[in-house]
Amino acid sequence: MKFSVEQKYDRAAAEVIACYCDADSYAHWPTGGHLSSPEVLSVVHSQPTVTVSLRYRFVASLPSAALAIIDPDKLTWVEESIYDLNRLSSTTRLIPDHYASKLSASITTTYRDTASGSIRETRGEFRVKILLFAGQVERAIVDGIRDHLRAEQAAISQILAES
């Protein structure tokens, strides 16, 4: 399932991407919704890139029929994002802790300056390989990602306002 989310900020793109590359920022990340708060595993600076690894857990309800195939407690993954500070972009891959043969995702994000701040545009594709229930599970997870990105926008805006 393909998805895209656009987030607008009143600060420059370089300032926004810097928040995503700062381990301390994740302490202010949203809680609730479909995804857990991220657990910061590592932040590695290697100019001009920064690699950020976070662990997430899907915490929303799944369709009851899908529960016969998927254990919700095992729906966890590492989100590994590589930020290119020169190009103001990132690529992200999700590395499932379980169900690696059943889940895959690719995500790209671009940051661009505007007259009033910047825009962060995230595009991705999430695939679930489960007979009969793939679409339902993909929709639930992608809805969770969209909700999380909206809540994340508020957290980043707050961090930037306080800096």
Describe the structure.
The protein has 163 residues and is of the alpha+beta class. The protein has one domain (2-162): START domain (Alpha-D-Glucose-1,6-Bisphosphate, Chain A, domain 4), CATH 3.30.530. The protein is 23% helix and 40% strand. The protein has helices spanning 13-20, 134-162; strands spanning 2-9, 39-46, 49-57, 76-84, 89-96, 103-114, 117-128. It is elongated, with a radius of gyration of 16 Å. The termini are far apart. The mean pLDDT is 87.
Task: Write a brief caption for the model.
With 163 residues, the chain is α+β, with helices and mostly antiparallel strands. It has helices spanning 13-20, 134-162, and strands spanning 2-9, 39-46, 49-57, 76-84, 89-96, 103-114, 117-128. The longest helix has 29 residues, at 134-162.
Fold topology:
Blueprint: E1 2-9, H1 13-20, E2 39-46, E3 49-57, E4 76-84, E5 89-96, E6 103-114, E7 117-128, H2 134-162
Antiparallel strand pairs: 1-7, 2-3, 3-4, 4-5, 5-6, 6-7
Give the name of the CATH architecture.
Answer: 2-Layer Sandwich
Give the uncertain stretches in residue-range form. none
Broad shape:
elongated
Which CATH C-level class is it?
Alpha Beta
Biggest β-sheet: count, sense, barrel?
7 strands, antiparallel
User: What number of domains?
Assistant: 1
For the record, what is the CATH homologous superfamily label?
START domain
Mean pLDDT: 87
Question: Radius of gyration from the CA trace?
Answer: 16 Å
Beta percentage is 35-45%
> Which class do the helix and strand fractions yield?
alpha+beta
Number of helices: 2
Distance between the termini: 37 Å
Q: What's the helical proportion of residues? A: 10-25%
From the 3D structure, determine the CATH topology. Alpha-D-Glucose-1,6-Bisphosphate, Chain A, domain 4
Number of strands: 7
The largest beta-sheet arranges its strands as: 1-7-6-5-4-3-2
